[in-house]
Amino acid sequence: MALARACCTHRSALSAAHAVRRLSVSAKLGKEHFKLLIIGGGTAGAATSNKFGPYLGAAKVAVIEPNEMHYYQAGWTMVGGGMYNFEVTQRPEASVLNNKCIWIKDKVGQFSPEKNTVITESGREIEYDFLVIAAGLQLRYDMIKGLPEAFETPGVCSNYHRDYVKKTFPALKRISEGNAIFTFPNTPIKCAGAPQKICYLSDAYLRKTGKRDKVTVVYNTSLPAIFGIKKYADALMEVVERRNIVLNTRHNLVEVKPDSREAVFDVLDEKGQAVRQAVWKYEMLHVGAPCSPIEPLRKCAALTDDKGWVDVHPETLQHKRFPNVFGVGDCANTPNAKTAAAISSQMETLRKNLKLAMKGKTPTAKYDGYASCPLVTDYNKCILAEFTPNGPLETFPFNQAKERFSTFFMKKTFMPFLYWNFLVKGTWEGPKYIRKALHLGMSK
Question: Coiled coil located at which positions (predicted)?
Fold first, then answer.
């Protein structure tokens, strides 16, 4: 039995190694023209590769992705809170891309949609019949003066970055008095709940370790409210008030002074304009990363709106100007929250509409704007926010705005399994049919 397991493991390892080798070598051979080119190998890009690699056949699909590792970034809240080891949130990129696809280990340098080409940073020109832009977004810590230097000092951390998330729990263990400040930026951001999740976990940890009385927990957000959907905002405000967390709205972090351990915030008016500044001393500072589209998109006005996001029809995900281009995930200008759950629901729309476009037909499937944010509020509680831009759209037939252990268990244990085995594999397209069944067909 042990020998059989060993042989099986050996065959799997050889198969994986062969896949990586084939992908790497194939990307360097022959004319670089593909039926489908995917920009990005993150959640959306990997799922797209697994949907269309088998559909179009070997070597018809290519994925441009420079990173060797793929990260389950939704798990970094748990890493920062001391519940996961960082290593469980990463796997080799080759393990999540479909093995019928060509993996081009490079970065996109320039888009030329009029010519149906993309040029990589290394200068390779790649032609396509259809293009799916799943480029995610770019963390812009450079937008905050002094922050890159501050990350080299104790106590400054961010769950949004694979290096800086490793500083969060050590900073939490280290602090014994003073201010623990958590920030939300004045830009679009992926997983908008992440800055307050770690705020709540930090408060819970400080209480558990008997340090909370000497530490002031502060949540400074650039937004006018703690959350964009009123039902969940009301529930979260109850958490904030019960836990004595200092909440400052319309506060945008603009500078960090590591020598004096000060964080400088612009205080914004109702139009988002700075009217004055507020300076806070910190012992711990968790920074919600400002985000933007990647630079090549910001430089390609033909593909983007005036803010640099891929300009798609929000329901069909097809580009408004180029019908052979689709945008999916965080890089698109759809009005939903930028979460992995949103990508799962977008996958059904992309699967149907891209296949229709490939047959010369008009896309008809419609994305409803669904997104979800499991708002961890303690080491055993979670508020499972599910919504569209129009309001809550909940899967379960109970009030999901209430803190529950069951939804915490889903976040900690079930959702990583769902991510690795179904979402990035292209087989999970959101909870729509489960929701309909649980609501006896009376839900959208």
Answer: none
Q: Active site residue: 191, 199, 300, 382, which one?
A: 191
Q: Give the domain CATH number at 122.
A: 3.50.50.60
Cα–Cα distance between 430 and 422 in angstroms, integer?
10
Judge if 122 and 59 occupy the same domain.
Answer: yes
Asked about 8 being catalytic, the answer comes back as: no
262-288: buried (b, 16+ CB within 10 Å) or exposed (e) per residue? ebbbbbbeeeeeeeeeeebebbbbbbb
Q: In what order do the strands lie in the sheet with 156-157?
A: 156-157, 284-287, 178-184, 215-221, 246-248
Burial of 156 (0-12, 13-18, 19+ CB in 10 A): buried
Q: Where among 238, 261, 292 does a domain terminate? A: 292
Cα→Cα distances 431→353, 394, 418, Å = 19, 9, 12
Quote the pTM value: 0.91
Within this chain, do residues 376 and 430 fall inside the same structural domain, yes or no? yes
Q: Which domain holds residue 192?
A: 140-292
Q: What does the angle CA 234 – CA 236 – CA 242 come to, to the nearest 5 degrees?
A: 105
DSSP lists the bridge partners of residue 218 as 181, 246
Q: Which of 101, 157, 291, 373 is catalytic?
A: 373
> Is residue 364 in some structural domain?
no
Does 444 map to a domain?
A: no
What's the total number of domains in the chain? 3
191 is catalytic: yes
